[in-house]
Amino acid sequence: MNGIPGYDSCRSGVELQIERVIVAALEQATVHVRCLRGPVRRGARFNRLSGSAQAVDLTLTEAHVYGHRVPALDTGLTALVTLRGKGVQHLVSGTLAVEGQIIQGTNPQP
Prior knowledge:
Number of helices: 0
Helix content: under 10%
Distance between the termini: 19 Å
Structural class: mainly beta
Order of helices and strands: EEEEEEEEE
């Protein structure tokens, strides 16, 4: 604890909704996402996954919007992102009947 009230709650909390898992390997996935709470910067770490009690530790290593690599995703944008780390196998695509999972985490320190 650092003594600043509400520090952790305002420390760049970010959220992505998984629309489609395109490619998933052992510890890396390419995923089509929508940014629900951003901006989400490269290096953001995700440790919470909606609808799952499984532990995840994923890092956003790349983001592409309309084919262009971008350093951050603003709220509302959709993008192809690369996530690396533990828990990739727990990511699932959304369907017409069920919205996609939401991953939550924090941006890297500036």
